[in-house]
Specification:
This protein is of the alpha/beta class and 184 residues long. The chain has one domain: Purple Acid Phosphatase, chain A, domain 2. It is 30% helix and 18% strand. The chain contains 6 helices and 9 strands. The strands form 2 sheets. Strands 4-3-2-1-9 form a 5-stranded mixed beta sheet. A 4-stranded mixed beta sheet has the order 5-6-7-8, covered by helices on one side. The longest helix has 15 residues. The chain starts with a strand and ends with a helix.
Amino acid sequence: MYLTSDLHVGHKKVAWYRGYGDDVDAHDRDIVEHWRATVQPDDHVWILGDLAMSSPDRALEILAELPGHKHLVAGNHDACHPMHRNAWKHQRRYLTVFDSVQSAARRKVGDREVLFSHFPYRGDHTAEDRHVQWRLPDQGAWLIHGHTHSEERRQYPRCIHVGWDAWRRLVSWQEIQRIIEETG
């Protein structure tokens, strides 16, 4: 299993921020090449939000051609996130590519609860935390998230940021387990 977030396929501003200048195609191509070199057909990949900036059509077309079982925990830039008034209208389109689409998910590492969400418990890439009504409450569980666009992988206790900006690659579930087990 692999995790990532904030791919922002086709997003010119993010491509520039990541060092691609105006070459959005090179940005997207690097993501695709890494995915193809990493993911096997039976692997599961969890994207923790923000597949694309606005129109997901190009991103969904690209993802449909990539190996693996794909799952989406929707983010604020995904049209299917329930924060958007017409999210229900987009659900079917996302489900043509993703095996599941949801606003959060959970797993276990040993006896520890691990939650998946696009949003961290706190923090943002702006001065104020946005979308607070869509954030999971911090009740002691580990949280795997995206959203911040930070290059930091660990910003808060019990939180792991799997965003493309932090790792520049997909993150394996074994890496997540190791961080949780070593941190305690």
